[in-house]
From TrEMBL:
PANTHER family: SGNH HYDROLASE-TYPE ESTERASE DOMAIN-CONTAINING PROTEIN (PTHR30383:SF29), THIOESTERASE 1/PROTEASE 1/LYSOPHOSPHOLIPASE L1 (PTHR30383). The keyword Cytoplasm does not apply. CDD domains: SGNH_arylesterase_like. Residues 6-192 form the SGNH hydrolase-type esterase domain. Keywords: Hydrolase. This is SGNH/GDSL hydrolase family protein. GO terms for molecular function: hydrolase activity, acting on ester bonds. It comes from Marinomonas transparens.
Amino acid sequence: MATILCYGDSLTWGSAPNGGRYPKHLRWPNILNKLIGEHHQVINFGLPGRTTLWNDPFLEGRNGLAYIQAALETFGPVDILIIMLGTNDLKRHFNVGAYEAAKGVEKLIARSRIPNTYNFPAPSIVVVAPPNILSPAGSMAESFTGAVEKSQFFHKYYQEVAVQHHCIFLNSAGVIQPSEMDGVHLDAEGNEQLANALADLIHIEINK
């Protein structure tokens, strides 16, 4: 049995574009679990607002780097770690782009491979470049001013980091796009499509 930890933000947590949270069966980590077999364990450790490594002055506990080791020990041993973070890095008040987000992912990779208290082996890592942001609407509009253009470079910089650090890579923009309702979050179809794309990669990794 493999343990797969999904470390992400609201797109992993299951935020719906019209507000609230999808029921479990519509969130991509739960769909992924069904696709690869429920004898494996897929853990949804998404948190709305989580960044790669930035401290958000408006939301506490969103620094992904600060909690990755604790997450790996809490759920360990973890066989496969899926990292899909960076969308929130593009919020206007952080004033960074896709390059800096990718460098944040690079730090997460390094931190996840540090020897831990319990001698759990380092997990295989899947780096997922977040989907391109569409025209943010509603409450997303102000927060993500300028993010549409920046998000176009997620796949370039994330792939470079993944290749350099021998991680599996998925460019999610190649299979999904956010809902037009808010331009950031996934609709139910997007969750299903992402789960299917990841299932192909996870099957290969599990069966090595």
